[in-house]
Amino acid sequence: MPFPDVKLANRPLHFLYLCDCSGSMAASGKMQALNQAIRQSLPGMAAVARDNPEARVLVRAVRFADHAAWHIETPTPVDQLEWRDLQAGGITAMGEALKLVAAALQTPPMEVRALPPVLVLISDGQPTDDFAAGLEALLRVPWAQKAVRLAIALGHDADLEVLQRFIGSEPATAGRSPRRPLQASNATSLAQYIQWASTAVVGAASMPASRVSETPLEPAAGNIPLPDLPPTVLDPTDDVGPLVW
Amino acid sequence: MNWILPEGASLGFEGLAAPLQIIRGLGGGTQGQVYEVDLQGERLALKWYLPACIARDGGLERRLEASIRATAPNEDFLWPIALLRASPASRPLIRLRQESFGYLMPLRPPAYVGACEHAAGRLAIGLRQVLRACFGLADAFHALHLAGLCYKDVSLGNLFLEPGSGGILICDNDNVAVDGADHGAVLGTPGFMAPEVLLGQARPGADSDLFSLAVLLFRLLTRHDPLKGQMELAIRCLDEPARRRLCGEDPVFIFDPLDDRNRPDPIEHAAALITWPIYPRPLQALFEQTFCRGMKQPSRRALTGQWKQELARTLDRRALCPACGQENFQASGAPALCWSCGAPLPEPITLLLARGAVLAAPDNELHPHHFDALAGEDLRRPLARVVAHPQDHRRLGLRNLSSAAWSAETHDGRVQPVQPGESCSLAALARIQSPSGPIAVQRPTRPSPAA
């Protein structure tokens, strides 16, 4: 006879992409690279969601250029997600994008009980609107304060200082850290960071991962211990990404 | 996935006479990546570590070497077979700048699926199989602890189940160490970690394994978490500080008889409320022992041997509801109602043995430990199995799974041999003499005195 038809109670985990679609993203195939990176990351993200029965992973996306708008407005279960290509063109209304996300993280529409949301901001340039006002609006919302906030800088023209302000205070230790903007200088590293954010970070935020003694048990930086960044895997010579920015 | 080892390539390793062919990548995480490999026609699994993981865990190589020398406690572990470092010729093919290593282990057969599939309710599995899996888990930890070792990082993520049989496999055995030898870096997985380890007051060891084992058994048996009740519902954002409070600073078992602050919510935690009453009182008592007094006193937690004994007894008590067919595990004697449909359960035929009693329900088995006081509970080599008659499912028989003939005695004193592989009808029998010992058949209406 079958086991009783019961399931582990779960909580929603909201995952939001904030994608820069300004005109400069059209250069050197950056827009296509981002579309590809997100599309390629979805099967891995769905697998992590399956393995974490305590979480219901729901994805949304905001695009910003002359204005900010929802690219995926309905929180969508990752296994039902179809990524439509983003198009580049316009300026960089990043502040407006943050205000849009701030409104979405209010309760309601946010559930009363959830896992920490994950916000991933991807940009290749400077905000052209009032970024500070947008950030202030975002960080007034309790769910945004609790959120895991990550930033990916595309190419060398991204405003690292702005991205760092989105993430929060810079870590004291030197070196690569998920609490600094991740600098993607080519399509391969962009794909790695997107994959890392959509799998390892989603895993850490939804079901606690195995802990080693080095991980501070008293959480100092943020309310979710972030997993290691992807290792620098050497590109095999026949597999160099088509783009160098 | 960016695979560190090139798929399809043949790589040489120090100490391996033949090259290893990398068949395909199976998965990867923050520790490393796992590959299916071929060694001279034999399919094995290879875990390859990331340099960051090796750097963080100074004792890793020494622990692995000790485990490889010690060999697996029993066959339910995907135990390390050999530690591998790339040969100088193969070194440039590995896509890492820093030196790294890995280990070979048996490949998990495809029928075994991750235990989280059961937790998520996506696995077609019966209560008998879940209880057998729980027994297998307790048995594996029993063997591990008896060998003086501890596992340190029990969670749903390193357990695999075979839903048809309830067989288990335990992977990620690279944290196993001698209990008390403080070599490892791993602390455990929050939610499965003992409170004293989560709070940093103790290092993981055999006592904290007992806590984690009980959490895993509870999650398999109820599809719910032992600490998630009203107190979890009061938390809006379930992040690290909240988990630390819930599982470390003020952990309260949802069925604590003396502390009702964390009772399950009828809607949010329905799984716990439906499944908990299925299990007999002595099994529930072991959870209470571990999660109430044992919560703060590690030495009071239920031991692996206690779990084995009670889980085996629960399986012995398995009876099928005549109305709905669902499996029931109530203590004998008391008039009972089916947990699923509420129909009264009739007193079934009972097989009385030197060491215990087994209810006659299809698939229930007799094992050496039912006869021999010195044999530990073990479900691997059944001596007999209750079977339904192929034409009339209500008629039950007992199949001889041993290698020697039995002699079956009817009520009127006739004696008939039952050869290995044959079954005898329980309706007609008073007792069976087997080389392991006598089996008395007790009927509910007119209980006959035990032979």
What is the gist of this entry?
Chain A has helices at residues 30-51, 94-104, 131-139, 142-146, 160-167, 187-206; strands at 11-20, 55-64, 68-77, 118-123, 148-154, 182-184, 211-212.
Can you offer a commentary on this structure?
The complex is a heterodimer of chains A (245) and B (451). Chain A has 245 residues and is of the alpha/beta class. Chain A has one domain (14-208): Rossmann fold, CATH 3.40.50. Chain A is built from six helices and seven strands. Chain A has a six-stranded mixed β-sheet, sandwiched between helices. Chain A starts with 10 loop residues before the first strand and ends in a 33-residue tail after the last strand. Chain B is an alpha+beta fold and 451 residues long. Chain B has three domains: 10-106, 2-Layer Sandwich (Phosphorylase Kinase, domain 1); 113-310, Transferase(Phosphotransferase) domain 1 (Transferase(Phosphotransferase), domain 1, Orthogonal Bundle), CATH 1.10.510.10; 348-442, Tumour Suppressor Smad4. Chain B contains eleven helices and 26 strands. In chain B, the strands form seven sheets. In chain B, strands 1-2-3-4-6-5 form a six-stranded antiparallel β-sheet. Chain B has a six-stranded antiparallel β-sheet with strand order 18-17-26-25-22-23. In chain B, strand 1 and strand 2 form a beta hairpin. In chain B, helix 4 (127-146) packs antiparallel against helix 11 (304-316) and helix 6 (206-222) crosses helix 10. The longest helix of chain B has 20 residues, at 127-146. The radius of gyration of chain B is 25 Å and the shape is globular. Residues 446-451 of chain B have low confidence and may be disordered. The interface between A and B is large, with 50 and 68 residues. Strand 7 of chain A pairs antiparallel with strand 12 of chain B, so a sheet runs across the interface.
Which features does this protein show?
heterodimer, A: 245 residues, alpha/beta, Rossmann fold, 7 strands, disordered C terminus, B: alpha+beta, Phosphorylase Kinase, domain 1, Tumour Suppressor Smad4, 3 domains, 6-stranded antiparallel beta sheet, globular
